[in-house]
């Protein structure tokens, strides 16, 4: 089989699984779960085969899907090093999360629907990874949004889940509006939406780069990867089941935005890149602060994700898309690990999510705790773990660019260590604070195995030398570039010192501040106003709520009034009325009187005579 | 004869006008129909006058056909009036207004 | 001499026509009509269309008007019906009369002056040769026949069909109702 066919098989396997589940297996949850896991395994196998088959070269394949006159929309694959890297990560992490879900969702009544949703999500994600033109990316982008909507709203009977899924979808759609306009503009500007063709055009003539296209396409990224100002959906999305949070909102979907940016990196001029860097840095710091005001374990991890996404976009904005990709991959490993660990804890504590009610988990669930610690260390950027290498590279790049960015990023690292430390000390140590925590027990094999594998990856994943040859090429390139940048070495040592200081101070500081096993949140107890301020998260949700309720609602009412009065009343009824009027007038011609008809006849003849002799008209 | 073409045309025109007057003023269907025949007759006169003064035969032939058609039309029209009388028991136009709105 | 005849016969025709329109009695009207047709036939004779004059008297005055008289008497319209009340106001009559006179003047002015030459009567031959323009005017009925069967063959045949259709139509329309309902 050629590489293109293998990739097609990889793409269609989860679709097939989703279709089968949707049609036949909705009641048979267990069977559906096995089928979905098998599909995920299939994706892994096919990806491996495809990478073997390509051997580092780029694969292109396309078929025409729609054509209107001059304009054709094609569906095709563009499989180069970047997509190989991403595909490996998505396939592997996806498989592990599927396996985890077998255990986690074992007693859920709607298992079939859940696994169908996971399969359709894998299909959509693979579509984004493999796509070769903007329109195809957009189609799968929307599909991913739909899968996210479906999966967030899995617990149908809770209001919270329904509202969260709606919010996620709508906020994404706002970003997608900019995305769509960007695609249209790009087509108008370049004459094509194919990524390779656009890249070639830009290489040939760099004046074709337009900041407007870059900014518009970035809107899709802002929506999907939860940057300012469209970040409000991500914390709410934690209302979905934990495997969903792990897969979609940590490892893959939110990373799709960053992946997309990397794909279109050639379109970005300096000005926009600078803007992205500032945006990313500010999100990184903002989310770090917000995490201190949260008591739900998943929400803390969500803000952590937000913060790390900020790091990724900062890396991209500093001009190193490869390093952004690197951080994306390592983040996927350890964030998935953290989420799955949290899921294991939640499952063990019988669905208790408040950290203030947990405690002493270390004694009750040792394997989960150890793997969780490994994840935390990787997230904080401790030397030797996966997160260190990517974060280190980002800090160096930031430092080489501007002191302000460097300072903020380091502050972000400190904050990260701080809130993760808070989490660890409160949850794992001390005495159990509730019955649920007291009766916690270690999770089953299907849940623990992925944790162990991910823990290994969180350590090994950063050792870029170990990665297979075909993947990671762009990462190596960018790291080389960084190493040879000016002032790298002294910046590197500076970063080593400051970065290590950041996480050490963060972890130990949180230990001293929050203490082990204390009751309640120390910050809340000591200075309520600060805690409340952090919890308010800069009132974004309130502002948006006010806008929608007061402003948008009024505009909608006005438009509806116009619609009823103008369009229905004036145009539709009006034209009907006009026709009726003409009919009534014509009806009055039927006098029934012969003499009347004679007069009309005469009038008609005179008119015709005038026309014929050229007098009238 | 020194009477010119125009004199004949004036006579024809006057006959036509009188016929038109009859059509619009009278209420009796039969009288209306006779006035129509008068109008046709006026046209015949005009045709023959033109034919004579232009020196061709075409006008006369056309009158021939007009007379034929008029005869057939009168037969049929009177049959219709008779049928109408059977239905409505009147030939006065102001009573024949069933088609009014 | 012929001029005087022209004026006399024109006057007769016109007066008879006006009387026909104005008389309230339909039978009187039919009689006046016959006089008008005969006046017209006289005018045809003055225009040397002898054949047509005879046809006019035989067909129009003889057949058509007789048919009219039959129907008028059959329908037995009351004398009282349509008496003085039959006319509309004097105003309508006056206005209509003036209107139609204006129409006549319009017709006359359209044909006066430079539009038509004032030809005098040309000489007439008995048996001319036929040539490609209009058939020249003769007084004999031979040229009638000649034109009918060469130049106007199609209208001639169509007229035949027309008469057939009229005959069938009359038969159908005048069927009695109880026969039709059976």
Written overview of the protein:
The complex is a heterotrimer of chains A (617), B (101) and C (182). By secondary structure, chain A is mainly alpha-helical. Chain A is built from 26 helices and two strands. Chain B is elongated and about 50 Å long. The N and C termini of chain B lie far apart (56 Å). Chain C is an all-alpha fold and 182 residues long. Helices cover 69% and strands 0% of the residues of chain C. Chain C is built from seven helices and no strands. Chain C has helices at residues 2-22, 26-46, 50-75, 90-111, 141-149, 153-173, 177-181. In chain C, α1 (2-22) packs antiparallel against α2 and α2 runs antiparallel to α3. The N and C termini of chain C lie far apart (65 Å). At the B-C interface, α1, α2 and α3 of B face α1, α2, α3, α4 and α5 of C.
Helical segment tally of chain A?
Answer: 26
SS field, number of helical segments of chain B:
3
- End-to-end gap of chain A: 77 Å
Termini of chain B, distance in Å? Answer: 56 Å
Strand content of chain A: under 5%
Largest β-sheet summary of chain A: 2 strands, antiparallel
Task: Please outline what is shown here.
With 617 residues, chain A is mainly alpha-helical. Chain A has 26 helices and 2 strands.
Outline the fold blueprint:
The complex is a heterotrimer of chains A (617), B (101) and C (182).
Chain A: H1 3-24, H2 29-54, E1 59-68, E2 71-79, H3 81-104, H4 111-130, H5 134-152, H6 159-190, H7 195-204, H8 211-224, H9 233-236, H10 242-251, H11 253-263, H12 270-290, H13 297-317, H14 321-348, H15 361-364, H16 366-380, H17 386-401, H18 403-428, H19 435-438, H20 445-460, H21 473-483, H22 488-514, H23 522-526, H24 528-536, H25 540-587, H26 594-612
Antiparallel strand pairs in A: 1-2
Helix pairs in contact in A: 1-2, 1-4, 2-3, 2-4, 3-4, 3-10, 3-14, 3-20, 4-5, 5-6, 6-8, 8-11, 10-14, 11-13, 11-14, 12-13, 12-18, 13-14, 13-17, 13-18, 14-16, 14-17, 14-20, 14-21, 16-18, 16-20, 17-18, 17-22, 18-22
Chain B: H1 5-25, H2 29-54, H3 58-88
Helix pairs in contact in B: 1-2, 2-3
Chain C: H1 2-22, H2 26-46, H3 50-75, H4 90-111, H5 141-149, H6 153-173, H7 177-181
């Amino acid at each position: 089989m050629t590489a293109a066919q293998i990739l097609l098989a990889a793409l269609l396997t989860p679709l097939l699984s989703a279709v089968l589940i949707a049609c036949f297996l909705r009641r048979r949850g267990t069977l559906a779960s096995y089928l979905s896991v098998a599909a995920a395994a299939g994706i892994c196998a096919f990806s491996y085969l495809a990478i073997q088959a390509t051997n580092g070269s780029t694969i292109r394949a396309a078929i025409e899907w729609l054509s209107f006159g001059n304009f054709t929309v094609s569906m095709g694959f563009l499989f180069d090093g970047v997509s190989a890297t991403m595909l490996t990560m998505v396939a592997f992490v996806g498989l592990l999360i599927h396996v985890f879900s077998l255990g986690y969702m074992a007693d859920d009544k709607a298992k079939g629907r859940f696994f169908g949703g996971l399969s359709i999500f894998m299909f959509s994600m693979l579509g984004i990874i493999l796509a070769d033109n903007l329109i195809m990316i957009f189609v799968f982008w929307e599909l991913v949004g739909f899968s996210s909507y479906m999966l967030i709203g899995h617990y149908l009977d809770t209001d919270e889940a329904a509202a969260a899924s709606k919010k996620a979808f709508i906020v994404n759609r706002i970003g997608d509006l900019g995305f769509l306009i960007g695609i249209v503009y790009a087509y108008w500007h370049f004459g094509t939406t194919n990524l390779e063709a656009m890249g070639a055009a830009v290489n040939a003539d760099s004046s074709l780069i337009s900041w407007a296209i870059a900014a518009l396409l970035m809107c899709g990224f802002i929506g999907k990867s939860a940057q300012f100002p469209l970040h409000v959906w991500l914390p709410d999305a934690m209302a979905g089941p934990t495997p969903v949070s792990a897969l979609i909102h940590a490892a893959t979907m939110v990373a799709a935005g960053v992946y997309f940016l990397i794909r279109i990196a050639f379109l970005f001029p300096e000005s926009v890149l600078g803007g992205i860097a500032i945006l990313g840095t500010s999100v990184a710091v903002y989310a770090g602060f917000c995490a201190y005001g949260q008591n739900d374990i998943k929400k803390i991890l969500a803000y952590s994700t937000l913060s790390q996404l900020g790091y990724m976009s900062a890396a991209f904005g500093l001009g190193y898309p490869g390093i952004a990709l690197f951080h994306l991959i390592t983040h996927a490993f350890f964030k998935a690990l953290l989420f799955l660990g949290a899921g294991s804890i939640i499952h063990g504590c019988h669905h208790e999510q408040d950290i203030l009610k947990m405690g002493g988990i270390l004694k009750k669930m040792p394997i989960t705790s150890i793997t969780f610690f490994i994840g935390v260390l990787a997230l904080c950027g401790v030397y030797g773990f996966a997160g260190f290498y990517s974060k280190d590279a980002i800090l160096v790049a930031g430092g080489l660019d501007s002191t302000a960015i460097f300072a903020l990023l380091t502050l972000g690292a400190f904050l990260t260590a701080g809130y993760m430390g808070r989490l660890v000390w409160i949850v794992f140590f001390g005495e159990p604070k509730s019955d649920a925590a007291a009766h916690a027990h270690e999770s089953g094999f299907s849940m623990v195995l992925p944790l162990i594998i991910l823990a290994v990856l969180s350590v090994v994943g950063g050792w870029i030398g170990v990665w297979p040859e075909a993947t990671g090429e762009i990462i190596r390139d960018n790291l080389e570039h960084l190493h040879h940048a000016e002032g790298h070495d002294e910046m590197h040592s500076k970063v080593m010192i400051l970065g290590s200081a950041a996480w050490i101070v963060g972890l130990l500081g949180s230990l001293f501040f929050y203490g082990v096993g204390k009751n309640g949140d120390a910050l809340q107890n000591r200075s309520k106003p600060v805690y409340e301020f952090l919890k308010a998260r800069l009132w974004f949700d309130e502002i948006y709520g006010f806008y929608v309720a007061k402003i948008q609602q009024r505009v909608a009412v006005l438009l509806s009034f116009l619609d009823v009065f103008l369009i229905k009343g004036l145009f539709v009824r009006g034209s009907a009325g006009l026709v009726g009027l003409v009919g009534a007038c014509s009806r009055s011609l039927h006098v029934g009187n012969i003499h009347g008809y004679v007069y009309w006849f005469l009038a008609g003849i005179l008119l015709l005579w005038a026309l014929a002799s050229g007098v009238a008209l | 004869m020194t009477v010119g073409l125009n004199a004949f045309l004036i006579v024809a025109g006057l006959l036509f006008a009188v016929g038109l007057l009859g059509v619009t003023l009278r209420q009796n269907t039969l009288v209306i129909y006779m006035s129509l025949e008068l109008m046709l007759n006026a046209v015949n006169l005009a045709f023959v006058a033109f034919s004579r003064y232009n020196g061709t035969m075409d006008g006369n032939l056309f009158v021939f056909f007009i007379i034929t058609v008029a005869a057939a039309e009168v037969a049929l029209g009177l049959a219709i009036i008779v049928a109408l009388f059977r239905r409505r028991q009147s030939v006065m136009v102001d009573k024949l207004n069933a088609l009014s709105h | 001499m012929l001029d005087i005849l022209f004026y006399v016969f024109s006057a007769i025709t016109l007066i008879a026509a006006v009387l026909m329109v104005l008389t309230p009695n339909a039978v009187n009207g039919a009689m006046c009509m016959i006089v008008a047709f005969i006046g017209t036939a006289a005018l045809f004779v003055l225009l040397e269309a002898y054949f047509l004059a005879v046809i006019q008297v035989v067909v129009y005055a003889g057949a058509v008007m007789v048919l009219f008289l039959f129907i008028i008497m059959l329908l037995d319209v009351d004398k009282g019906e349509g008496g003085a009340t039959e006319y509309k106001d004097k105003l309508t009559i006056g206005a209509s009369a003036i209107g139609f006179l204006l129409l006549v003047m319009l017709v006359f002015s359209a044909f006066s002056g430079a539009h038509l030459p004032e030809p005098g009567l040309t000489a007439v031959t008995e048996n001319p040769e036929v040539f490609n323009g209009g058939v020249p005017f003769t007084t004999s009925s031979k040229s009638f026949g000649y034109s009918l069967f060469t130049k106007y063959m199609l209208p001639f045949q169509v007229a035949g069909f027309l008469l057939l259709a009229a005959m069938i139509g009359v038969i159908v329309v005048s069927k009695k109702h109880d026969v039709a309902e059976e």
